[in-house]
Design goal:
The complex is a heterodimer. By secondary structure, chain A is mainly α. Chain A contains nine helices and no strands. Chain B is of the alpha/beta class. Chain B contains 14 helices and 16 strands. In chain B, helix 5 crosses helix 6, helix 7 crosses helix 13 and helix 7 crosses helix 14. Classes of the chains: A mainly alpha, B alpha/beta.
Chain lengths: ~230, ~350
């Protein structure tokens, strides 16, 4: 939901803000790069959908350029090494699933978890962003809804065959997301993004996606909160 | 389709309901977790009118808990309400009642300024506080309860505690315009609002709770009971009718005396069984028939295809609107809950 913090309270050019921004923007840039590569890989795994996945991957590359520009606009050098470490867990799990040709697991990681997280984070960020970044993020978030929908549709069409695999992918990867969030909640707070709101928005988005795919309310409540308290 | 946005009465209540409904992930969690929990549709509802018409609805649990207000987690509280509203709209619900504290939070924290939730443009025409129906039902309960107890309204004193609120002010307007109530006592915290109400009505005495209670034949409670107030039964009139319009209903546990009659206020009984689970959770005596009047308002608006925010804003409930919702209420088979004597 929209946050009420006045933009005037945030000094986008303070050292504290820029320091936090170097990691958060780095994560976003790396996230878009991961998404770009993951969609190319998914295109290889599902050749009949390759054109669509190439299209999605190109969009992600464009998003990456947009967020690089956001960093330059604030004279921030993004910490990409931190960002690569940050994504290492999900990256490894995606690569391992791809090597075993587990399409559903790859889609859960990229199209559901990463996209839902991106949508939640961008929606929470928009009201507290600087003017330049807000415009870019608003346009990106519209695209991300389409990417989420693409994964949803495939998983929905194959629901009976892949339900158990989706649940297992959820068990493996959602706790990683909570840990990732805890790693950067301090930096996110500096940017005016509240962890509580972020988690809630993620669970709303992820729950809606699971519902569209075919899960029941009880399953959604179980899956979307999996590992949250332990994290 | 109609919708109801509701919440549970305390963290402990929420944990036990989550356990009963088979959601252990939610049952074992503390307030921090509930502050992050998303809204959920947890019940599908079918209601048939005595006209034979059948409508369908959904219950949206907002995951709001009163402890969020008590511990000043205002952002979490407001997020729960707007996210539940967005969820209702996204699920294609045409008219949704904001039950319990939902409408109070919406009003007090000025949430109408939030028009966009993620990719949803909130359409406020799809929501109603349900307060017009609640106020109407409470007024009918005053009239019927007085009759049952042999209290003659044209000689009676009625105290309205919470008189300046949306429901309280509507109750005062109705009692003034539609009954011969001899004396109206206006009780509330804000002196300025009390004076405005008094001048609007052209009558009514402004008193403190302590002053008002011993004078009243009938007390309408539409404010939550202030902490620290102990009602001394011996100082009340005998008989005395107390209509508990608060949430949760707790007057009955505080006062037990044969001459003091407690009636759960703002509750209606439908003439036919309703197919749902949620009223078992809030401990209604007859869960398949009894419900909050504010929830029933969204059903009535759906029956009549009045997909509009019938009750909205503060202190805008007119006697004419109460009469209109009252007519519809009767037409479809809803009756005010009566005293069991």
């Amino acid at each position: 939901m929209p946050q009420t913090q006045a933009i005037a309270e945030i000094d986008f050019y303070s050292d504290t803000y820029k320091d936090a921004y170097s990691r958060i923007d780095g994560i976003v840039i790396e996230g878009e790069q991961e998404a770009h590569e993951n969609y190319i890989r998914l295109g290889e795994m599902l050749p009949e959908h390759q054109d669509d996945f190439i299209r999605l991957s190109k969009m992600e590359a464009r998003h990456k350029k947009g967020f690089e520009a956001c960093g330059r606009n604030l004279n921030v050098t993004c910490d990409l090494e931190f960002a690569r470490q940050f994504f290492a867990g999900l990256h490894q799990n995606f690569q391992a699933a791809a090597a075993e040709d587990k399409v559903a697991t790859c889609l859960v990681i990229q199209s559901l978890i990463i996209e839902c997280f991106a949508i939640a984070a961008y929606n929470i960020y928009i009201p507290v962003a600087d003017d330049f970044a807000r415009k870019i993020t608003e346009s990106v978030v519209k695209d991300e809804y389409k990417h989420l929908n693409y994964g949803e549709e495939w998983l929905k069409a194959h629901f009976d065959d892949v339900k158990a695999e989706i649940q297992e992918a959820n068990r493996q990867n959602l706790p990683i997301v909570w840990r990732m969030l805890n790693e950067v909640d301090g930096d996110a707070a500096v940017l005016g993004m509240e962890k509580e709101a972020l988690v809630e928005d993620f669970m709303i988005q992820y729950g809606e996606a699971l519902s569209n795919i075919g899960f029941s309310t009880a399953e959604i409540m179980r899956m979307s909160a999996y590992g949250l308290v332990a994290a | 389709m109609f919708g109801l946005i509701g919440h549970l009465t305390s963290l402990q209540h929420a944990q036990s309901v989550a356990r009963d409904l088979g959601y252990p992930e939610y049952a074992d969690q503390g307030l921090d977790f509930w502050c992050m929990a998303p809204p959920q549709i947890v019940d599908d509802i079918t209601v048939t009118s005595i006209t034979g018409q059948t409508i369908y609805g959904k219950y949206v649990e907002s995951c709001f808990l009163p402890e969020m207000l008590a511990s000043q987690r205002i952002k979490a509280a407001t997020r729960k309400i707007v996210n539940a509203m967005a969820h209702a709209q996204k699920n294609g619900i045409n008219i949704t009642a904001l039950g319990g504290f939902s409408s109070i939070i919406f009003e007090n924290f000025n949430l109408q300024r939030i028009t966009r939730i993620r990719n949803i443009q909130l359409d406020l025409q799809r929501f109603t506080t349900g307060n017009t129906h609640t106020a109407y039902i409470i007024c009918r309960q005053v009239e019927q309860g007085a009759q049952q107890l042999g209290i003659d309204l044209n000689k009676a004193t009625v105290a309205v505690c919470g008189a300046t609120g949306d429901i309280g002010s509507a109750v005062c307007r109705w009692l003034d315009a539609r009954t011969d109530t001899a004396e109206l006592l206006l009780v509330a915290r804000h002196q300025g609002r009390l004076e405005t109400l008094q001048s609007e009505l052209g009558r009514g005495k402004i008193l403190s709770i302590e002053e008002a209670l011993p004078l009243a034949d009938i007390v309408v409670w539409v404010a939550s009971m202030p902490k620290g107030i102990d009602i001394e039964v011996e100082k009340l009139k005998h008989p005395c009718l107390m209509i508990d319009g608060g949430y949760p209903k707790n007057l009955g546990t505080k006062i037990q005396h044969p001459d003091i009659h407690i009636l759960n206020g703002g509750i209606v009984e439908h003439s036919l069984d309703i197919d749902w689970k949620i009223m078992h959770i809030v401990n209604m005596n007859i869960p398949n028939r009894q419900l909050f009047a504010c929830f029933a308002e969204s059903m009535l608006l759906e029956f009549e295809q009045l997909h509009t925010n019938f009750s909205w804003g503060r202190n805008e409930i007119t006697v004419a609107k109460m009469e209109k919702i009252g007519e519809i209420s009767l037409k479809h088979g809803f009756k005010p809950l009566a005293l069991a004597i």
